[in-house]
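Task 17 of the worksheet. Students: predict the tertiary structure of the chain below and write it out as structure tokens. Keep your answer in the requested format; marks are given for formatting as well as content.
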Amino acid sequence: MSPSKPVPPYIAGVQKTSITVGWLPNDEGTGLVDEYTLEYKEMFKQHQQPQDGWKTLSIQKWAPAEQLLHIYEKLPPNASYTFRVKARNKIGWGVFSEPSEIVTTEASHPDR
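Model answer:
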């Protein structure tokens, strides 16, 4: 049986040029899940509609919850993103989580 559907990723921190994304391990303690794929989608600012399709941000081996974090860096200020995650075991990949909340990097300082 493929891994269960993970809960949506959460936002652990937001800066002007970075977002820290975390997610909870699913099937924790069973030893069945061995890898996660984290994807992102950039959103338009006006209506929060997606600009493009989903893109892979990180592939990470299973780890305890406090280590399941990814820092997405070198982002433009005032840009919006959403994230999703899926898990893999010996049988194959599970389904993606629902998307996270939409998060926006901090705005830069105005020009003088």
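Marker's comment: The radius of gyration is 15 Å. The domain at 10-104 is CATH 2.60.40.10 (Immunoglobulin-like).
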